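Problem 12. The chain below contains 225 residues. Write out its predicted structure in token notation.
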Amino acid sequence: MTAADRVYQIIKQRILNGRYPAGSYVREATIGQELELSRTPIREALRRLVSDGWVEAIPHHGARVVAWTQRDVEEVFELRVLLEPQVVRRAASRITPERLATLEALAERMDSLAERDDEVTIEEIAMLNNQYHAELVAAADSPRLQRLLETIVQIPVSRRSFHHYTAEELHGSMQHHRELIRALAAGDGEWAASVMRAHILAARAAQLRPTAGEEVGEALRRRLG
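Solution.
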């Protein structure tokens, strides 16, 4: 792992665990002093984080953690549940044996990783999941749908879902992947669309479930109110 890779992972983990909350700035100088690194790998890591949608570059101010409100996330999932079933509905009549084999390999790798329970593993599953969904979009052979999804579905939203999953929910997501492959192999677009809808709704429920801290805060607000 390079120095830039290490910085990238550290910053991203701090975003996920709330140490760098939405709207806060990630300061190059502070990171450099803490990790005893020059600014070159830090800047490289920040460029990658901007590219992946975790932070945004603010002219004359630096890198700011992207703010996602609950309303933003709800809207993204509302659009996904409309668009992505159509993706697999189209893919069912167009997918090749080679692409099905690719999906099988990705699902198998995710299944094996799901047996573990650590943050690095979850991040790897999230990356493989993005590849899996990208294969589905490619199989649909619809440039318009692809452009819409690329505009609407930001990677951090889908990646954060996995960090919210319980073990049971994670295994359920893996089962959806397997059932989608069976539906696509059978050429049944409606079956595939139904599975995809359930898959996205499950991710939405995990993403929007309050964290323990949020639940405590809500309880206090009710008590004080």
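Discussion. The chain has a mean pLDDT of 85. Students who got a different answer should revisit the alignment rule from Section 12.3.
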